[in-house]
Specification:
This protein is 60% helix and 4% strand. It contains three helices and two strands; from the N terminus they run αββαα. The protein has a two-stranded antiparallel sheet with strand order 1-2. Helix 2 packs antiparallel against helix 3 (70-101).
């Protein structure tokens, strides 16, 4: 639960902020309404994460083709898994960075 700071005890927005708490913690004073835009660094991280994730999915989907040689199968599997996992982790990092930038 969000507690009011002593210097802002009479602020009516503190009561609103206390109601904007989700399962993962505080959403912030403004909640989801009027949230700030993503910073440039966070946006770049999200785009790169999406590109890595898409690349990993495409490479793993290509494994269903029976005409791949053993070398290509090994390379597609390794690169696909690494790109997919890297994209997911980078996406989580971008989401966390965006959330931290919204903190009051």
């Amino acid at each position: 639960m969000v507690r009011a700071r002593p210097d802002r005890a009479s602020d009516p927005e503190d009561a609103t902020a206390a109601r904007c708490v989700g399962a993962a913690g505080s959403v912030g004073r403004r909640g989801m309404v009027g949230a700030r835009r993503m910073t440039t660094g966070t946006l770049v991280m999200a785009i790169v994460a999406a590109a890595f994730t898409l690349l990993g999915i495409v490479l793993l989907a290509r494994l269903s083709s029976p005409s791949l040689s053993q070398r290509k199968t090994y390379a597609y599997r390794m690169i696909g898994i690494m790109a997919l996992s890297g994209g997911v982790v980078l996406g989580f990092s971008a989401a966390a960075m965006h959330q931290w930038s919204l903190a009051p």
